[in-house]
Amino acid sequence: MQARMRPRMRPAILAALAVLSIGATAVRTDARPDDELARQVQELRERLAAQQATLEAQQSQIQSQADEIEKLRGQVPGDWLTEQRAEEIRGLVTEVLADADTRASLLQGGAIAGHDGKNFFIGSSDGNFLLKVGGQIQPRYIANFRDNAPIVFGGPPADDDEFGFQIRRVKLFFDGHVFDPKLTYRVQVAANRDTGGLDLEEGIIGYATNDELRLFVGRFADPLLRDSFTSNSRQLAVERSITSYVFAANDNYTEGFGADWRPGEAWRFRATLNDGIGSGNPGGTGNDFANDTTDFAVTGRVDWKVAGNWKQMDDYAAWSGEPTAVFIGAALHYEVAETGDNQLAAPGFDDFFVYTLDGSIEMGGFNAFAAIIGQQVNTIAIPNLNNFGFLVQAGYMIVPDKVEPFARYEPVDIDNAPEELGIITAGLNYYWHANTVKFTADVVYCLDPVTNATTFGALGATGTGLTGLGLLPDNPASDGQVAVRAQFQLLF
Predict the structure, then answer these.
(1) What pLDDT is stored for residue 456 in this prediction?
(2) What is the pTM of this model?
(3) Residue 482 is part of a domain; what is its CATH number?
(4) Count of domains forming the chain
(5) pLDDT confidence of residue 168
(6) What local confidence, expressed as pLDDT, does residue 2 receive?
(7) Is residue 177 one of the residues assigned to a domain?
(8) d(C-alpha 368, C-alpha 361), whole Å
(9) Per-residue model confidence (pLDDT) at position 358
(10) Looking at the domain assignment, is residue 122 inside a domain?
(11) What's the rounded Cα separation, in Å, for the pair 449 and 422?
(12) Rounded to the nearest 5 degrees, what angle is found at the Cα of 230, between the Cα atoms of 228 and 232?
């Protein structure tokens, strides 16, 4: 490197020296003493000397770097770019180019995509089209202990103790808007727990006429009991209360038309005209207009936000950073049974009326909820059958946003049952990422036998259909039962 640099620098140095020599000769032949000219010549010589020293130092540095490169090159094997590595590099380049093409295509089409912290989404850049995709998985383990299992007619006695795993829920959600953020949709499907097939739970088209009023039609969770329409992914316990099963058929999916009106910040009114409680539940018969068991049904609900924000009503937990929240609500439901050929179909009622009053509070990691539920059923055999239920629950974050013990008590009093049914539930939530990733374990203790008589509700006897709660039918002479439940939940 040094040998290549010097030939190019020598002509410049020699030329500069020649100029200096000529200048010096001129001074001598002039025979005129000129101190200023002599001083300038001397200064120029000193500058050239300094530049020469700088060039030599740079040459030395360049040579040192060249030697270092040669040393490193000697340490690298000659076959460092093998065929396998070359193939990996080509594959990586292909992936990068494909990703770039995809992004360019999305940008050219005006699309945006990503994750908003809750759901994956894709939409148009102008905001007129949006699709959000999410899901829910709830595997659980249940151990049930009965004192005296009932004898199945014509078969062997049932086991007193039952243990096993269960995939309680696997769901997919699709929601967003088309053409305009005011025109919304939601589709929710769930895997059938027995067959694995998909069942439709929700299919809703909505339209917001303004900031206060939204209209909707399709299959939806009817806004009757708060514990029923609060998502099963945002409960305190592993499963909803037994009052949700007896008085509102658990999720209470129905089909019909409704309105959601929010006049101002403090009030919310909802009303629906529908096919009846549970008419849209998967596995039911309400999807066909000719097969439902009602002539008509109406539901109305009002909620008053005393404090807090409406988002806090979506669950029961009191999270850090949230303000104190207080909600009070009331709802009514009236249903007239199918007249004519379906009047004698189970559960065999003419009409029934359900009413509820509920309230909740969230503050400083503490939450509490209470509800009173009443039902008047006019059955074919027994007119004016009055049933009542009560629910109270509370939880407290002993480790903020992480560990939350809770307890719940609920008695159900069926008018013509020999005794009421009381259930106590206590457990613990551990939150990894709020409700998105959490583990719940609890113990359910039934103070009285779980039978058809003690769980008779709007859809008739539900004593044999409560396995979702981890409960099984009891012998009427038994002392009740205990269920131990553990569940892991993932939302995406």
Answers:
(1) 75
(2) 0.74
(3) 2.40.160.10
(4) 2
(5) 92
(6) 42
(7) no
(8) 5
(9) 98
(10) no
(11) 9
(12) 85
If asked whether residues 7 and 156 sit together in one domain, one would say no
Q: Is residue 200 part of a domain?
A: no
User: For each successive 10 residues of the chain (492 residues), what is the average pLDDT?
Assistant: 44 43 41 53 68 73 74 60 64 66 54 84 91 96 89 70 93 96 96 85 96 96 95 96 88 93 96 91 67 86 97 96 97 85 54 94 98 88 85 98 98 89 97 96 94 72 66 85 97 94
Instruction: Give me the domain span that covers residue 28.
Output: 2-75
Amino acid at 374: G
User: Which tokens sit at 303?
Assistant: 């909620």
